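Assess this one:
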Amino acid sequence: MGVLKDYLPERLLSLPVAEFQDAFQPEIDKLAEAIFETTEYVLFAKTADRWLPLWETAYGLPVDPQKPISFRRSRLMSKIRGAGTTTAEMIEQVVASFANSDCEVIEHPEDYRFDIKFIGTIGIPPNMDDVRAAIEEIKPAHLAYQFIYLFRTWGDIKDQTWGGLVSQTWGEIKG
């Protein structure tokens, strides 16, 4: 946004009108910032902060100020994405938003179930309680599901030497 003086004709810049413009400019800057903040932090769920409880209530989510705002936004965005027909792609997006891991949905329609295979994480991803809650909320009620986790086996690390492993923790070797 420009400065008010930029919008004045040249002939008025030398008159006291320009002084009024200088006096108004800080207030106009504050107004522009307030409009930006309203747009950014109220109107968009992805960046909401002070108004996040209003968004959560509108989408039927419990308001829990004790949870981190990033978690609450992630849960809200998952709920927004989850509106409509549930597809394998939708489940993948919702799981990825909570677990911070890529996954693959393997459908078994003949058995009325699907598998969620984590392909971006070795071991059990964090936040699995929230992943389960989100899936329960968006999946069709008649479908069962299970998680498939990837783990390293002794065979996966057999080519490494003990000398190379000695500087790592057990968690680093497993994950």
About this structure: The chain has a mean pLDDT of 81. The CA atoms of residues 14 and 43 lie 41 Å apart. Strands lie at 103-108, 113-122, 144-150. The longest helix spans residues 17-41.
